[in-house]
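Dear support,

I submitted the protein below through the web form. The confirmation email said the job was done, but the results page showed an empty box. After a refresh the structure appeared. I'm attaching both so you can tell me whether what I see now is the final result or a partial one.
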Amino acid sequence: MNGLSKAPGGFAFEGRTAGREKRSRTLSRALYHEQDRAGRGEPVFARTAKGWLPVGHIEDRGGCKVLAKEVDSKRHRLRRPEGYALEGSVVEEARERGVSEVEIRERDTGRTLRAALDAFDTHGLPIARAGFAPQVVLPLARWQVEDPRQAALFGKVTP
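What the results page shows now:
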């Protein structure tokens, strides 16, 4: 098993040392807050080869909590299956913290992709890649895409 299994309420992790990881994550969060994070929300961390690093932040948008993440599409978008992945522990932490939506901003293209956090449970595919913690990939077809280049081409549309 890849350490991640589908459970009725989402994904469950097997064989993790939650207490030790929680302490490490808390320490990383304290160090992260010592730096200036102008305008960003509460950080979300994932374990990497370099230790616990921030992978995004939670923004409160009028009562709706959004997990926002900035990426380089050429580097972070998966090719097979085509989509974006989040570490399983990040999905679980976001759920525990009341997040309802995930937003990915592609720095290189200017596009913004949005999906409901629940979509990772209903349409997400658990994957295990060498060198990475268990992840859940949401296929690109399940994301709502906003492309500023397309909006400029057709003119600004107001709902």
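Response: this is the final, complete result; the empty box was a page-load delay. The radius of gyration is 16 Å.
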